[in-house]
Amino acid sequence: MTKIYFINAVRRFLIFSACLYMSSCQKSFDANSYKPARTFGGYTSSNAVAGANLIDHFSFEGNLKDSVSNIAAVGTGTSYGVGLKGQGLAIGLNHYAIFTPTAKIKQLSSMTIAFWINTPINAAGIQTPISFVNQNQFWGNLDMFFDGQSANSSVFKVHAFGNNGTKEAWLTSWKIANPWDTWLYISLTYDNASSTFSFYVNGTLVGASVQTGFGTPNFANCPDIVLGTIQFQTNPSLTSATTAQGWASNVLGTMDELRIYDKALSSSDIKALYQLEGLGL
């Protein structure tokens, strides 16, 4: 009897131990590990979108370094605030950052410029998130700015020189509703083959413009690219053609995730970037 009792006790102990082991295994089971990765436009991360064509990327995570070229911008009064993903570049009145364009930027034929911005209305003047300097001209080689600002809307204007500086494009009909104090994803593409500029907000095409004969964008006389204001509002002015203007000002808010590509991204890629970065991916 004693032997049988002992054997049964051992059996009960082994069964109990097995149940504990199985229970602990079940508790550590993570159902999420079996979920397929979320994809948008065939991509699972924003860095994968046209990765081979990405020539500049500023994430503004506590620094002004371009993660592609490792060139750092120089800030004047800028700091780091809450971005769309982690930190972002906080600008403000009389504040801006300047970086030196890489050789790949100066060789751009087709291109995409995309960034997030969250800014209040600026009654003092135009807000220019990015300006590609032309040190001999009033306007830069490429300027992108909010103008016609009202409480519920703004015109987003683009100015650009092309064809060795002999062609000038003004794109002034694109409007954004309720643009203030919210994150917007701004994307501009230029396709050299069709001479077409396309403008997107939050992944959606707002408008396109064919500029016949525009040719290759002009980046001659372009020693700097400015973030947060236009070329003549820096101190000193970055162009010999003019100094500060009373109708121009600075971005008052925050920029994040600036990307420059050496191709005109498709609308599906623009949409994928908007969706992925909006999810922090």
Summarize the structure in words.
It is built from three helices and 15 strands. Mean pLDDT is 91; it is low at 18-27. The N and C termini lie far apart (66 Å). The chain has one domain (47-264): Sandwich (Jelly Rolls), CATH 2.60.120.200. It is globular. Strands 1, 3, 4, 6, 11, 12, 13 and 15 form an eight-stranded antiparallel β-sheet that branches. A seven-stranded antiparallel β-sheet has the order 2-5-14-7-8-9-10, with no helix packed on it. The protein has helices at residues 2-28, 103-106, 267-278; strands spanning 54-58, 74-76, 79-82, 87-90, 96-99, 111-118, 127-132, 142-150, 153-162, 167-177, 184-191, 196-201, 204-210, 225-227, 254-261. With 281 residues, it is α+β, with helices and mostly antiparallel strands.
Keywords, separated by commas or semicolons:
281 residues, alpha+beta, Jelly Rolls, eight-stranded antiparallel β-sheet, 15 strands, 34% strand, ConA-like_dom_sf, LamG domain-containing protein, hydrolase activity, hydrolyzing O-glycosyl compounds
**Sheet with the most strands, sense and barrel status:** 8 strands, antiparallel
Count of runs of 4 or more consecutive helical residues: 3
User: How many beta strands in the DSSP annotation?
Assistant: 15
Mean pLDDT: 91
Specify Rg, calculated over alpha carbons.
26 Å
Low-confidence stretches: 18-27
The CATH architecture assignment turns out to be Sandwich
Number of domains: 1
CATH topology category name: Jelly Rolls
CATH class identity = Mainly Beta
First and last CA, distance? 66 Å
| Helix and strand pattern | HEEEEEHEEEEEEEEEEH
Shape: globular
> Which secondary-structure class do the elements indicate?
alpha+beta
Helical percentage? 10-25%
Q: Report strand %.
A: 25-35%
